[in-house]
Amino acid sequence: MQEAFDLVIFGGTGDLSRRKLLPAIYAGLVAGRVDAASRIVLTSRSGLEGDVAAWLDGIFAENVPACGVDAASLKQFANMVTVIELGLTDGGEDWEALQSLLAGNSDRAIVHFLAVPPSVFTRTCKLLGDYGLNDTNARVVLEKPLGHDLASAQAINAEVGRWFDESQTFRIDHYLGKEAVQNLLALRFSNIMFEQLWSARTIDHIQITIAEDLGVQGRGAFYEGTGAMRDMVQNHLLQLLCLVAMEPPARLDADSIREEKLKVLKSLKKYTADEAEQNIVRAQYSGGAMAGEVVGSYVDDLDLDGDSTTETFVALKTYIQNWRWADVPFYLRTGKRLPDRFAEIVIQFKPIPHSPHEGWGKHINPNRFIIRLQPEDHLALRMMVKNHGSATEALREVEMNLDAVGDDATRLGPYLRLILDAARGDQSLFVHREEVEHAWRWVDHIVEHWQASDAPLKTYQAGTWGPYEVHHLMVRDDRQWFHETSGRLSNG
Ligand code: BG6
């Protein structure tokens, strides 16, 4: 088990803390991954009236931890939690109180988790510095978004860097904490078979999809003006792309992995305005139906007065311009209010060069390696075999399941894993400042094209897979989006 540590969540009574962090840490305690001697300090502008246990109980009723909730564990967890009133504008008595609260266990790791808007990251880090809460035991975890463009990200990184050095700074991308993502690294780098196949010689193309069925209700203040490119592509999708495409690192340590990811980001193709128009689709959902219910448009969901040009869907084709991936398209897509919630990477291999049986022809599906991150973890290879019992030439596609059995890590979720890594000082699954900045460079370039273009934002009905152009992106290349549900093969 991880040694006891202190976790301070700034914005501790806010949305992220309630929905993801507290349920994850509670589940970690019950699973024996979090030492009960650890302390969790939640800072809040207005403090908390009443009993912590009752408050936590209410939170867990809405955001049920993976292990469920039992009275004894809840009591134990509540004893670990302290809620304090703390302003993030100026220091003062509340900061002195935090300082003395943390002084008791000076040899422990202290993780400061900034679950607050990026606009207050730098002020909070300065206050942590002013009150001496940034010594070598301390780490700061920065939740995305890290800025809204290159300039703002650089400003945040520079300012945070005045108080915490890079080895203490943990930029979180919770997608990197997902079990299937780590399994992808294990499979790629512990099996010679995959590495031999992992290049333009054998791979036809790669698809990465993060589809969400939810809209953006309740997140308008953040989402309007941010959009899917900055909210999802700049971080989660590009990070997944890096892990799929990077060269084998010399060691699976933070420096080596981050160095390789950075090379991928530097090799991403930069589009001219015309190319961007041809290869990137952006759209916003209009009203529609989801699971038989009428749902509103983006503008309705946010209760906006006029129109909005914020995209809730992006699909794009890009290339990594290096030796390994020359001419292999990477298709990325993400959107809100799609028919289903899933995240999946599909590595599609080339078709066989010659069919030795004339009856096979179109019946041979290309091999595919599927890495599903959610709703459940799943790794599988899809291959052709002889259809058992029928004529020699009859083929059937089967799935070779590569899932590990009996691990509860999936249930515990990515945030627990990442918080424990931060407490241990392991940065392998966190994002280096240069990665963030390079990702912004690439995204800014696209956004500049959008801003200069007079092409209107496309729309798609809520509950559909996006506008026609998204399908066209594939079909014109003689390919299709692949979507697998419950073991059934279908094309989205
Ligand atoms: C967040 C985005 O980073 O990731 C959200 O800000 C998005 O808009 C969320 O809904 C998706 O995360 P997950 O793990 O639920 O797929």
Question: What descriptive keywords fit this protein?
Answer:
492 residues; nine-stranded mixed beta sheet; disordered C terminus; alpha/beta; binds 6-O-phosphono-beta-D-glucopyranose; single chain; six-stranded parallel beta sheet; 19 strands
Description:
With 492 residues, the chain is α/β, with parallel strands linked by helices. It has 17 helices and 19 strands. The longest helix is centred in the C-terminal third of the chain and has 20 residues. The protein is globular. The C terminus is likely disordered.
Topology diagram in text:
Layout (H helix, E strand, L loop, with lengths): L5 E5 L4 H16 L8 E6 L7 H11 L8 H10 E5 L7 H11 L6 E5 L6 H10 L7 E5 L7 H14 L5 E3 L7 H12 L1 H6 L5 E9 L8 H4 L3 H19 L8 H14 L5 H7 E7 L1 E3 L2 E3 L2 H5 L10 E6 L11 E6 L6 E8 L18 E7 L3 E9 L8 E7 L7 H4 L1 H11 L8 H20 L5 E4 L6 H8 L6 E4 L2 E4 L1
Parallel strand pairs: 1-2, 1-4, 2-3, 4-5, 5-6, 7-12, 8-17
Antiparallel strand pairs: 7-13, 8-11, 9-10, 11-12, 13-14, 14-15, 15-16, 18-19
